[in-house]
Amino acid sequence: MSGAPLESCRAAVAILNWNGVDHLKRFLPSVVAHTGGDDRVVVIDNGSTDESLAWLSREAPHVLQVCLPDNHGFAGGYNLGLAQLKAQLDFEWVVLLNSDVEVTAGWLDGLVSACVDHGWSAAQPKIRAVEKRAEFEYAGAAGGFVDRFGFMFCAGRMFDVNELDVGQYDQDRPVFWASGACLLLRSEAWFSVSGLDEDFFAHMEEIDLCWRLKNRGHIVGATGRCHVYHLGGGTLQQENPKKAFLNFRNNLFLLLKNDHRSGIRARLLRRQVLDGIAGLKFLAEGKPAFFKAVIQAHGDFRKQRAAMAAKRKAEKEACVRANPEAIASAGQYQGSVVWDFFVRGRKKWSDLPQDRFS
After folding, report:
1. What is the pLDDT of residue 233?
2. Phi then psi for 234, rounded to 5 degrees?
3. For 189, which of 121, 124, 157, 200 could close a Cys bridge (C-beta 3.0–4.6 Å)?
């Protein structure tokens, strides 16, 4: 690690970078401008071969650098990078911040104060879109939830409908998951669960992280005290079969690994049937590549099912040791978001019956 590391700080703002010098040029200045005092900005470089490190050393010399020799992916990069950082810098909080995020004045104080006030171990701000600045951004919006079949959705974003932010979700609230685009965590909580699961490769790693924390008794929240702007789509665009593959497969990973209630086989079967219907819908829409992605996702899940079942067993044992009374229910919707959205026409989180949230 280069630069002049401090012995301790309140929060380490960790930006993972891989050949993203253009993102650093565009977005890092806002992070540096709005992060100060007892907080430090850190760039974890994932073996970049572009001009990222040279630009950082020249234009942002006070930003700490953790340099990994190879690209370890999103999960591996953060796991290795934060482990190296912790050996030289003591931080109470850590922020996982995408390199394509523009922050605003008071963003970090707002996140920390919300966690302290409510006893949360993790939290996200409101996340708006860079290009449509009044609109919630797809990846996280105002906090994430899950329905009874394991479908993930957000306050402010349901499927492909992004709401305008007019203050409707400004209230601090517990959620089921918080977005990895801008995720504040207690350092102790991060290291207690060994960070992110590298088997996910990309997409939904933060949901898995939040679910594991909740199963151990931690609380995850979303706050309206601050907001950031996220470009999104920097790695895989929404309309990309590879992303569809990862989302369908990783959602099955999430359920098997973290839904510790009895009857998981039946729930997985129901979810796979619903995924099959989604695949047929892709085919009817003239998207054979997406239909193929669903089939491949289920095939890969079957190949890795035994390994993920072993993780489920280990997770259950760890949760009992950590907090036998923990119930990871806050933020679960006891209805079907698919049925509500496509059949009942409920296009907003606020349209859903609130008494069906645990």
Report:
1. 58
2. -70, -30
3. 121
